[in-house]
Amino acid sequence: MSESSDKCLLLFQSIHKVMQAERIIVSLGIVYQIVPVPKEFSSECGMCIEIDCSDIEVIVPEFQFNNIFYNKVKVDV
Amino acid sequence: MTKIVDCRGQLCPQPLISTKRALKENVNGEVIQVIIDNATSCQNVSHFLTDNALPFSIDEQSGIFTITINSLGIEFNPKKEAEEYCEVSFSGKSGSYLVVLTSNLMGSGNEDLGKILMKGLLNTLPNLEKLPQEIICYNSAVTLARKGTDTAQSLVKLNNLGVKITLCGTCVDFFGIKEDIEVGTISNMLYIAERLSSGIHVVKP
């Protein structure tokens, strides 16, 4: 699989940050999916964002500007 | 004059094929009565007629279903082969339940939260050990199937896994999105009411 099609999960501190991050991603026209946080990361109900790993560099400056902190996890296919 | 199509003793897809043939041959717009002696075939023929916008009524007496079709003045151009409406028994990953979505939001309270929860739900369903047989959408839930939305992509994925997506036709009309539907079969209240009252386990998130 090519690097560009690898999927990454972005995990946030709260659902409010997920919603804020989603608005930014939508405004950038990036394809994404809202998915549940995998059980291995949290047993609580939580949502995270799945995107192509190659899109992260576009997103990072916007997240930094808006004080959105996240953890990135590469999805095993 | 009424044309009788007697399908008693026949199993799917034969009643569908016979109904389709009768409709094609019915150039004079006669009333057609299809007689069927099993509920599954009756449901499949109903689904076929609904999808082709043909008005019909069903009368059931002692397990014999009489479907009366009045196709006068209605053009019959089937979009799919009649045989495709022959529901097979669900197996493998399919569970014995259906999911009803009554809104584009999951739960009530905060709209933004409801939207994101719905996206999460639709992207979680494919990962369940047992998939729903069907997802029925009504009221604003039909907007989830609009072209260009991420929720429609999630529904397409579920559809590709064998989950039937059903949309309330009145609701699609109300929101003016008929030409804008990415996925799903447009159906009517009769079909939806039949499915909800069929005894199948109904999940309303």
Can you offer a commentary on this structure?
The complex is a heterodimer of chains A (77) and B (205). Chain A has 77 residues and is of the alpha+beta class. Chain A has a single domain (3-74), classed as Elongation Factor G (Translational Gtpase), domain 3 (Alpha-Beta Plaits), CATH 3.30.70.870. Chain A has two helices and four strands, in the order E-H-E-E-H-E. A four-stranded antiparallel β-sheet of chain A has the order 2-3-1-4, covered by helices on one side. The model of chain A has no long low-confidence stretch (mean pLDDT 87). Chain B has 205 residues and is an alpha/beta fold. Chain B folds into two domains: 2-85, 2-Layer Sandwich (Translation Initiation Factor IF3); 97-203, Hypothetical Protein Ychn, Chain: A (3-Layer(aba) Sandwich), CATH 3.40.1260. Chain B has six helices and nine strands. Chain B has helices at 14-25, 39-51, 111-124, 150-160, 169-174, 189-196, and strands spanning 2-6, 31-36, 56-61, 64-70, 97-101, 134-137, 164-168, 185-187, 201-203. A five-stranded parallel β-sheet of chain B has the order 8-7-6-5-9. A four-stranded mixed β-sheet of chain B has the order 1-2-4-3, with helices on one face. Chain B starts with a strand and ends with a strand. The chains are: A alpha+beta (77), B alpha/beta (205).
